[in-house]
């Protein structure tokens, strides 16, 4: 317990903690993000209803406005959609899907980008040329086009019964493949600097394998920039998933994300049911904005040129 208390005191007295305490916008963004994550993780406990259990749905409750509007019901604080699903509960469950896709896509792109960046930066030569040219080619294709391509291949390869269940992984793959280049370029630049330092030369003289040099010595020095990029990339991944779902390339109605909910509500905007699309959209904005604020702050704090 004493060691844990010492660690806590050390962290609280660090420059990072001090800069966090003196940044009200970052504190508010962190609190909002934390609350949204808690609502998503514990949606089955916090949500007033289970919006995806057909046994609990009543078509007579469809398209009810928010509780403060005329015709609203106290059972549904933010109203219901065309199937009678509670909007608030659907947001909690949809936010869980959006976060899962975003985190998984970022982890995939980080793993792929860091691996290729280490290889390109450490070995150089034709390895570096091939990887960087692949990155250039990939950057010439937008994420939506990559998603169209992967979705088309998945429809050809997979049986029809599995297509809807595999949409989750298809979206992750599409976003991850589209975003690995920024991580690879960052890690490559850091690796090219680190490989010329004396400690790497000493490790080579000591007959340490290249694999161990890269993982034990060079990789830890790339964590800071990668962490910042991953934090900023999480907001981009969540927003990209919402765009893909809005276009019909993302999550299916049986596993709706915030983008799927916005798309469903968009079809009813002209009918006057504005709440079906507005509230999921507001949740998406809060989620992405809070992540971006924290990511921008981390970038400034961890950048030695700005200290």
From TrEMBL:
Recorded topology in the membrane: Multi-pass membrane protein
TM stretches of this protein: 25-47, 97-127, 139-162, 168-187, 226-249, 274-298
Chief site of localization: membrane
Residue intervals of the ABC transmembrane type-1 domain: 95-295
Coiled coil: none
Compartments where found: Cell membrane
PROSITE patterns, per the entry: ABC_TM1
InterPro entries: BP-dependent_transpt_permease (IPR050366), MetI-like (IPR000515), MetI-like_sf (IPR035906), OppC_N (IPR025966)
Keywords on record: Cell membrane, Membrane, Transmembrane, Transmembrane helix, Transport
Family as reported in the entry's similarity comment: Belongs to the binding-protein-dependent transport system permease family.
Protein's UniProt name: ABC transporter permease
